[in-house]
Each structure stands twice: as structure tokens, then as C-alpha cells.
Amino acid sequence: MNTAFATLLSLVIDGVAYGMMLFLISVGLTITLGVMRVVNLAHSAFAMIGGYLALWSMQHAGLGFFVAVPIAVIGTMLIGALLERTLYRWVYATSGLGQMLMTIGLAFVITALFKNLGGTQLQSVPIPPSLQGNWNVGPLSLSVYRAFLVGASAAVGLSLWLGLERTSFGAKLRASVDNPRIARCVGIDVPLVFSVTFAIGCGLAALGGALGSQFLPIEPYYGLKYLVHVLIVVAVGGLGSLRGSLYAGLLLGVIDTLGRYYVPALGAFVIYLAVLAILLIRPHGLVPRS
Amino acid sequence: MNTTHISAMAGALRRQRFTAIDAVIAAALVATFFFAELYLALAVSVLIMIILALSLDLAQGYAGIETLGHAAFFGSGAYAAGLYALHISTEPFSGLVVGAAAAAIVGALTGIAVLRTQGLTQIMLTLASATLLLELANVAKKVTMGDDGLTGYSIAPLLGRFEFDIQGRTAYVYAAVVLMLVYIFAKYFVNSPLGLTAQGIRENPVRMRMLGVRVYARLLAIYTISAAVAGIAGALSAQVNRIVGLDALGFTLSANVLVMLALGGTGRLYGAFIGAVLFMLLSDRAAAVDPTNWLAALGVLLILAVRFAPDGLMGLIERFAFKSRREAAKSPNHRSQAR
């Protein structure tokens, strides 16, 4: 195997790992957007909350990685559920502009709050020793953590799909989305379904924020800085489509990684060009809603 | 003040004819020049933001085009005017025209993509095109000087006579005159057939299509005009500040101008004035005191505004005025019918 090909292969693997992380962070938004039709610009702020909660429970409470991350996810879900019950309820009926403004206002508040609490430095959640190091396969070197990330995202994607398609909650959820009035008539507690769904979306964001901090370091401006990444994955994938988010995450992750390596002069230019091109060809995303 | 007067005012706010309020605005512009001499630099940036907010109002408030990338046009206008001053001519008025033209071209080109979509995809496309331009300006360091910002150009005296002075007197008068011209244009525009169809499209694009309006072509025209106005704001900023930085194309600017317009009230030209003045003055004070908590305060302000004043401050004023009129209609001799 020649070196150019080996380089390409390891770049693609890196790109896939990055793409899976993008998928992990944005899939929560896909769900809330697809289900509740709320343009949630505070979504990546929830990812940041998850990152901070994981970081702090490791630093201050001395917990291990595999305990801290679930705690962060659950904590963020509770915060999300609380905000859904109070603030988000206000904007279900308003226009997209109102939702955008309310949620960006929320992102501002969260940003300022964490800047006061945690300072401005860039931090990342420490990786446990069991996930450090590399596997060497011939000329290829594969980071264990990246493999873990790909595995974790794949597991999340699979369980989401199963949860939506195979469980009774999934059925209730789909019913609430397709026709809230009839769903209410057959005895489904639609507001409760929405609350739970929103909490799950926030939990997924938190998981992405905590696990992805090696790629996107945790900082107070995280929620505003990486918002664009999350939004483009969702838009390119097709609003509310799980499969679309997966494809979009992978595609954009690989394009971004390859672009930065082969045409470094263009930097971040490549990914936005790709977004523009994809949305021009398919205005409703890779997997449009039927 | 009697209630008929208030309701007449509310009607005037909606219909966008020239009224006494416009005289108040003009008077305020003049008064600022004489009484706020120490703050003229801040006043100039407020005027520039009002122009940008007016431009956003044309696209978003009147035509319902959802955008989170209006900085693309501000930035293109700014860079075009800066490069024009650096390489071709330092004459300011032609610089404004160049800035407007450059932004109009960017508007027409991106509009072809943006206006085919709606909702979140539309927001994403505007954001993607603005970020694309930002990265382009960042990458093309030879032309734009990247992070350092485009500097080193001078601007010739206005009309060949009035130098741009340190206190910003000339800059202020220049910006105020440009603002008034843009404003007069905007008033005529929103009452023109094109502006009226824009409002029709905003309310119901399908109905407008049924009526035989070529919706896409109209929206493209409006988007291009809005871009040109934003380009004027950018060019003005480039000429007055003698520097164009990457932040002229940044997400923060796009978000800020959206916030200004939303606080003031969309779809009402006065909203751009109120929102920009309020936002700029508050953030100037707050940034001096504590920028972090200003962000939190701004966030709370936005959340409360969406909840309690969805149409912005202008909407609140109108609601108040209409309520007074309704109460007037409920005066004793009408009450029996009203109940």
C-alpha cells in the first residue's frame, strides 16, 4: 500500500470520526426540529452544558469518565425539560423568527452564565487511559478514542431508529407529530411526549458535547461558535430526518477533513462551498421529508 | 393627547406615509449634531446601523425573507468601497455607488439560491453564503489583508470641500444625509407596487402566485435592492472608519442587526430606527461596564420581547394606540352595542 493511499485512508477515517461527532451533536436538534418544529438555536448551548457538567463532575467530584458522561447527559436532560416546560412553551405558536430570537436569547444567557461560572479558557473532557493510544494496522494508525466515538455514535443512531420505529413511545411520538389533535383524542398526552422528546434531544446534545470535546473544545462561546456546524448538518441532511443527519454529518466531516488537508489555503472555505452546492442541488436536503 | 390623535398616529405608523414623526426624526438628527458633539463617532455608527436595519426590514419585514446572513451585503459593500478607495479613486460618493453595486451583485447571485427555499433551509443558505464570503475574505489575504483588516486608504473631502475631521462632524452630516436619502427611498419603495406585492407575498405566496404575480422574480428584485442598501451602509462604514475588518462579514453582525430590527419591530420602517438606537446605545454603555453580563441582559431582553412584544417596540406602541381607540369606541353611547 503506497503512502498517498494510506494518508487518504487515515484522513477518511478521521473524517468519519469527526462526521460521527457532528451527527451526535446535531441529531438531537433533528429530533426537536422534526418533532416540535422549533428552530432551536440554543441547541449547541445544551451541548456545551453537557460538556461542562462532564468536566466538572470529573474535576470537582472526582468521578470517572464513564460515570461523569451519563451524569452530564441526565443533568442536561433535566435542564432541557425544565426549560421546555417554561420558556419553549411560549414560542410553539410563534413564527420562525420569534423562535430564532427567543432561542438565541437563551443561548446568550447560557453563554454569559458559563463565562461567569467557568472562565474563558478552552477545556476538554479528559479521556480515560482505556481509551487512549492507537491501534496500528499495517501503515495505518487508528486512534482508539475515535473508534470509540464512531461506535458510540453508531449505537446512538441505531437505538434512536429502533426507539422511533419499534417502541410504543416512538409510535406515540410519530402520531403526535403527524396529527396532534387526533393524537390527543386517542389519549396520547401530547405535551408530555413533547417534553420527553425535547429532553432526549438535549441529552443527545450533551452526549455529543461531552464526547466531542477533543474536536470542539468546551468554552463559554461554544454554543454560538459551533451553532453553524450543527445547523448546516441538519439543513443538509433534510429537516427532521435521522438518516439525513447521519449522511450529512459523515459527508461534511469527510469533506472538511480532506479539504483542510489537501487545500489548506482554502481552510474552512471548502465545507461552506459544499453546503451551498448540496443545498442548491437538493434544496430540501439529502433526505427530504416525504 | 386625545385618542383620535393617537389612533391616527398608529394608522400612520402602519401606512408609511410621511408624517410629523419624520419631522421629529429629522429634528433629532440635527439636534444630535449640535448637542452631542462628544458622541458623534458613536452617533455615526448608530446611523450606519439604522441603514443596515432598514435594509433588513425591506427583505425580512416586508417580503418575509428569513435571513441570518445580512452581513454578507454589508461586508461586500464595505470591502468594495475600501478597495475602490485604495486602488481607483478616493471620491466618497462614487465609493458608495460601488459598494451598493457590489452588494447588489452578491445579493442577486446568492438570492438565486436562497429564494428557492423557505424556513430553516433559507436561513441556513443565507448563513452559508455569508460564512462563505467571510472565509473567502479570510483566505484572499493579498486582497483583503485577512485578519489585519483592509486599511491604508484615504477618502477625499466631500464635494471636494469638506474634509473628514477628527471629531466626526463631516462624517456625521454625510451619514445623516445618506440615511435620510435611504429612508425616503425606503418609504417610496414600500408603497410602490413592488413593495406592496412584497407584503402580499409575505402574507401568502401561494395566493400571490394564483393572482399571476411572478413571486420568485419579485423576491429576487427585493432581495437585490435590500442588498444594495446594506452595501451602502457597509461602504459608509468603510469610508468613515478607514478600516474594513473581517467582522464586517461576521455572524455577530448578522445576528445583531436581526436583534435590533426585532426589538424595534419588523415590517415598520420606524422599528429600524428605534431598535438600532436602543441596541447601539445600550450595548455601548454595557460594553463599557461589563460585556459578559450585557450578553445575559440582552438574552433576557430578547426572551421577554418574544413573549410580550412579538412585534417589537413599535408593535407595542401600536397595540397601545389601537386599544385606546377601542376604548374610545366603547364610550357610553356605544357601550350597549359593544356588549
UniProtKB/TrEMBL annotation, chain A:
Taxonomy, superkingdom: Bacteria
Xref: InterPro entries: ABC_transp_permease, BCAA_transport_permease
Entry GO CC: plasma membrane
Pfam families: BPD_transp_2
Localization: Cell membrane
Keywords: Amino-acid transport, Cell membrane, Membrane, Transmembrane, Transmembrane helix, Transport
Gene Ontology MF terms: transmembrane transporter activity
Main localization of the protein described in the UniProt heading: membrane
A GO BP annotation: amino acid transport
CDD domains named in the record: TM_PBP1_LivH_like
UniProt topology in membrane: Multi-pass membrane protein
Family note: Belongs to the binding-protein-dependent transport system permease family. LivHM subfamily.
PANTHER family, per the entry: ABC TRANSPORTER ATP-BINDING PROTEIN, BRANCHED-CHAIN AMINO ACID TRANSPORT SYSTEM PERMEASE PROTEIN LIVH
Protein name per the record: Inner-membrane translocator
Organism: Verminephrobacter eiseniae (strain EF01-2)
Lineage, uppermost ranks: Bacteria, Pseudomonadati, Pseudomonadota, Betaproteobacteria, Burkholderiales
From TrEMBL, chain B:
Superkingdom classification of source: Bacteria
Membrane topology: Multi-pass membrane protein
Membrane-crossing segments per the record: 23-56, 68-86, 93-114, 120-140, 171-190, 215-236, 257-282, 294-317
Keywords: Cell membrane, Membrane, Transmembrane, Transmembrane helix
Main localisation: membrane
Compartment list: Cell membrane
Any one GO MF annotation of this record: branched-chain amino acid transmembrane transporter activity
Cellular component per GO, a single term: plasma membrane
Protein's name according to its UniProt entry: Inner-membrane translocator
Organism: Verminephrobacter eiseniae (strain EF01-2)
